[in-house]
Amino acid sequence: ISLHSFPFSLCVSLAPKKGVKVAAKKKTDKVANPLFERRPKQFGIGGALPPKKDLTRYIKWPKSIRLQRQKRILKQRLKVPPALNQFTKTLDKNLATSLFKILLKYRPEDKAAKKERLVKKAQAEAEGKPSESKKPIVVKYGLNHVTYLIEQNKAQLVVIAHDVDPIELVVWLPALCRKMEVPYCIVKGKSRLGAVVHQKTAACLCLTTVKNEDKLEFSKVLEAIKANFNDKYEEYRKKWGGGVMGSKSQAKTKAKERMEVSNNDRSSSFKDAELELYTIPAHSSWFVWEDIHEIERREFAEFFSESSITRTPKVYKEYRDFIINKYREDDSSRRLTFTSIRKHLVGDVNLLRKVFLFLENWGLINFLNKSDDGSMEESEAEIELGTPAGIRVTATPVSMRPVTVPPLVEERAEPAFKFSPLTSYSDVFTDLNKPLLCGHCGESSCDSAFYQHTKSLVTLCDKCGDCGENNSAHDFKLIAAAAWTEEETLLLLESVLKHGDDWDLIAQSVSTKSRLDCISKLIELPFRRVSDGIFLWKTQILYPHFRG
């Protein structure tokens, strides 16, 4: 009897009885026909048909889709500032459900509802019945309208979409809400907000009030929103976004880290005799090469505050390790200077200087080659920290060179060392601001303005005005006490080159200004102006007929 003669429902395989072993099925080997040879398929021209392939990855998508995907990738790769990164912190699902449940109760009327309301109002007016004129409570929308309600302190809750394009339209709205102390939240989907107000999309919504039966639930939602957004302003203000690399970049980074770990393990397996010992003082025993100690974190808090992408713990460790390695590579008998370090490192000069001094004070560098008296060497004393605000004149000190006293000051000649080691501040600087004296009456009344002779350096006060018998009023010109003429400026530069840092002789040469005026003017001069003045002075001496 053939099985095919039975109904299909009867062809069921029954389970074997318990305790009965099932006989193993014999594998039947396929017998290959020697008349037909099996050959591999050739998919070349004129060969076998190729199998079907999924070609969706080769499709050229529309430009709008490609731009949309590239923009999304860029937002993941690039560093996003906190003002834009705050729009990635959206409301959670449960709280968003409760919020939209309230918003849907206060949806504004659509066209059909408005038409029905107007028809009822017209019928009531035709019948002579009073029509309801009470203003309904609805959700407000529109960026300008919502901004006006926030500024007038009428808004109780502001809802902002996270995907507004361009984001600059609403990037300032959270700051305005915090300023006016209005609760706000960021939810996903501008289309979801648009559905509430019968629009395609909506950038923001606003609630001014709710009905009495919804006030309890609305207060709970407001409290949760304040805790998640308004109270976390300081936290969101410091967090940057983005910086997520692709899978290929992450794989390369991980492979590089594994290689570094293997190299470190290989180097640590050397014998102790082959290791190079690095001596540090006992009070710096807290230092660990592989880690950053708490002392370093307290000293350099700016590297650990996450306020800038150029000041991170990794950057600090690179600075520290490079300085120490540079000291170990060089000859230990030579002192490491900041100038040699500055040539190889790029960054804030003040921070580099701070790291260098920190390592030197703790004895991590320059520990074995300090001078006997503990003073700095001459090579370390000359350090330039960027471009100065004015100019610094360096010359041989007065005590190290012979001084030729001019005839005008022979009577008041001073010793080579003017001040003793215990000279007080008042003893040194009390006579810096010495007033000018009138050449006729001898009074110090030249503070506001004075008259100066056009050919000589004779000064007259504005109260006296006596020009003498041999001079006329046309020989003098009025000069403000604070103003500097070109002749005085050139004379100041000439005196600085001639006398160096001896400000008494400089003030003696520039007779119309005091020592403090000369020092202040030299600091105020820009570097290019000083260089041009020195060049002009030298040119006029060497080439009198030159007019530059």
Automatic annotation (TrEMBL):
MF-aspect GO terms: RNA binding
Domain SANT: 479-530
Protein name in UniProt: 60S ribosomal protein L7a
Source organism per UniProt: Brassica oleracea
Keyword Transmembrane helix: no
Sequence similarity: Belongs to the eukaryotic ribosomal protein eL8 family.
Lineage: Eukaryota, Viridiplantae, Streptophyta, Embryophyta, Tracheophyta
A biological process term (GO) from this entry: chromatin organization
Coiled coil residues, start to end: none
